[in-house]
Amino acid sequence: MSVENISVSVSGENKNVEAGTTAADLFAEDREIVVARVNDVLVDLSHTLADGDTVVPVSIHEEDGLNVLRHSAAHVMAQAVQEYRKDSKLGIGPYITDGFYFDFDVEEPFTPEDLKKLEKSMMKIIKSGQKFQRRVVSHEEAVAEMADEPYKLELLNLQQGPGSGAEAAEGASQEVGGGEITIYDNVNPKTGEIIWKDLCRGPHLPSTKMIANGYALMRAGGAYWRGSEKNPMLQRIYGTAWPTKDELVAYKERIAEAERRDHRRLGEELDLFSFPKTIGPGLPVIHPKGGVILREMEDYVRARHIEEGFEYVKTPHISKEDLFYTSGHLPYYADGMFPPMDPDNGAALYRLKAMNCPMHNEIFRSRGRSYRELPLRLFEFGTVYRDEKSGVLQGLTRVRMITQDDSHSYVTKEQAPDEIRHLLKFMLSLLEDFGMTDFYLELSTRDTEGDKKDKFIGTDEQWDEATKVLEEVAKSTGLELVADPGGAAFYGPKISVQAKDAIGRTWQMSTVQYDFNQPKRFGLEYQASDGSRQEPVMIHSAKFGSFERFMGVLTEHYAGAFPAWLAPVQVIGVPVAEAFNDYMAEVAQKLRAEGIRVEVDYGTDRFPKKIRNASKEKAPFILIAGGEDAENGAVSFRFRDGSQENGVKIDDAVARIVEHVRGRVNSDPAT
Predict the structure, then answer these.
(1) Total structural domains in the chain?
(2) Is the predicted pLDDT of residue 138 greater than 80, yes or no?
(3) pTM, whole model, 2 decimals?
(4) Residue 540 assigned ligand-binding role
(5) Which domain holds residue 613?
């Protein structure tokens, strides 16, 4: 009896294989292949191929492969938890950037000792080589099998309702949604016995052994079910998983370095800012030393805007809420805005502004406009307010009060590409001036399918045209362009600059957005050269993104050791003994006369302690004066790297410091 063959395309090469061949059969000799992409759908290696399938292998080192590794590790962790805590009920357990988490309903919170025990239990499961096996089940079968898991039942019931269970919470899409309901079994490879199971869309690794020893449980904490404070508080365990132990160690070292650079800790140590409980979460106050950094940022970006043809404006912090209905923010962005206020006893409701653009539109239409005025570029340091939930607030990088270097360019449709090009060049040069030079671009577009497609306004033609303009300009920069489907603002697509910091983390910084909606909603017009009335295109841009976030990112990028031109204290003078206080005071006065920010330690501590104290302040220059220095009209330099240069004449020392600061040099001074 002849064996039937089928034809499949494997990495672009046509192959004839036996019917019943699986993806695992194709890649059996390559142990790094963990899943496959069949007809552009990610599937388990156990997936049986059909005639005409297009198959692409996915390595454990690729993003999709890493996600599968981490989601499989999450299942192993959940199995270990339910063996260890018999009372535990399962929440959601998705992969996330660099790791995974799983939520559990348990009687007692997890302790660090619990995590150590769970890691050991996971290793036993991993070494046993349990197989991950996929089963398609009906809704009724899934309900029966998950009868003891109330949170899984809730997801299943949501999926049967008007929405999709996949939209229920972050990570829920990895469990339900997308048509079929599937359960993954962890199976004993010798007996075929199902050891553990979970509602899951998959895919997964073929075997737990592929997780190896590159995993760790990082921490535990509380998390509300489905992210709502109205729901029960669950216990969330975070973990990470990597293809090798060496990669795990490298990741932990990066985490330790990130903790050393944490701007929240450095902000307190360097006396830059704080979050008083009496004021409220997400509402920072900037201290004098932080104010120096903020002032330098403001002075720089104000001057740059004026150089680039922008005009400074100022608008209120609150407005009648009708303004935000006109702009579309209340119909499409209401969840991000604070509740209304009623100062006029029902005459009109007011809102804290979440965006500056509606008020800039009012400036544009305050009088007639001519094509000769375009591009019309308005900018302000506008403070806006976002109703961020307390659980997502994070130091200066996620706050409720945001001060933007916000600009809006009003242009003709023909001028739009050049204006976007002008703004991108401006934004990239700004980041480079602050010492961030490694970046790529991200193009955020609208969702065209699913529930979120109705959260965007405008016609298909408008979106296509705007997206094409942004894409072409972005590509012309030569930078890498990454797609971000569904990440656009409701009124138009967006380019964001994704900048990498000193330890390789990516931060969203500057943005530029093409808006074809608000001009129409506000009835904005200009008189064209032929006398007709035309509607402008509006280009939104924020160069820092926000002052608060940018300060937080810079603090971490430089680990608090700011470049001399940005440093709150640029020079600390340290007399070797009290006898040299007056001498150092004269040196300090010469520096202050040149606009240098200098402090002198006149305290009674011993000299070595004064040096340690000055080093903790992370000042770029420490000047030392002792007997030999005073005799020779000189000072000694001590730099942040610990190196020292002795006997530098005072005038030469002042000139070197002034040149370094005024040159806006981002690297540290050195011998």
Answers:
(1) 4
(2) yes
(3) 0.81
(4) yes
(5) 571-663
